[in-house]
């Protein structure tokens, strides 16, 4: 007997506007029993930017085969396929439509490096199709998508890794252990910093869709807007329809480490955000400057997060990273793989370390073992770090301090803010009611 999800996927295709070229999404495939010598077949979805790191990261692993590259821009896709063949001396399959990848039973796992507005739906479709998933940060474009991803991973027994590579850094693991063990005393505050070079975008207006780009597929579940070079291929980050600003871009690494380091496993009760556009009169919608504060009154913890553009000073020697404050000292994190500590009133240098890790390998190890507990970046932490960024953006967009109920995951008596926890999906790229 067909289950509801199988029927929903078939209805999706039957009712789609492009029925002539649409493909049925696959039925659920039983989990493969991987042996010691099995190779995991991976498809990389989205190969313009961060996807290039996915290609090399997985290709460097002995028990992985990057079998398929997928991108709705065929010009970019064929360029990457040519580079792949030249670098690895073998051809790779190419697909423009991610649904064809999900329909391919030879693919064991997908690696999602598409724009943010696609992350959650692609992850859930992949889980339904029996694929394990490595999904770039933020794992969700909207707060309400996080629980859906957690639900899908559990329901379909899939391994889902959130692409926050600092979770696999040996230095960061050691740093968090120091925080747990009381090296800097009672840790009460975490500060996340994103001070990045962000230029004037200008306003390129609208123009015809470039040859080779399937703009309908690129837009996917987002609302359709006339094509603009301001969106494709990178600057979609700065438009609410597709991205989440820098707090939901680079900032996810920092929000993730803030929560991990403080040891909080729930959302804050008080959120305040302020900022705006002060430098450029361009088409960017998200703020150039953003300062967000998250308060956990019962746990006596506070998180501060700040985005600054262009030229600025560093704090404690870091501009992309974190600072943790305790009763006996503080810790500075630079990037994803270095920390240093300063102890006592005289700020005496304490433990420090620089060491990375392999987040892609951690994912593959969990896939082969069929053991999600091995993951360093599971769906639960995906929801926490991505969700924190979304709450900050909602406070900024409403222009007021907000009170949040962490148990219900709703704002307190605020229908306007609650409406921003989710979005309307564009048919036929809709989120399943029951994943």
From TrEMBL:
Residues 41-163 form the Gfo/Idh/MocA-like oxidoreductase N-terminal domain. Transmembrane segments: none annotated. PROSITE patterns: TAT. Residues 205-272, 360-430 form the Gfo/Idh/MocA-like oxidoreductase bacterial type C-terminal domain. InterPro entries: Gfo/Idh/MocA-like_OxRdtase_N, Gfo/Idh/MocA_oxidrdct_glycsds, Gfo/Idh/MocA_OxRdtase_bact_C, NAD(P)-bd_dom_sf, TAT_signal. GO terms for molecular function: nucleotide binding. This is Dehydrogenase.
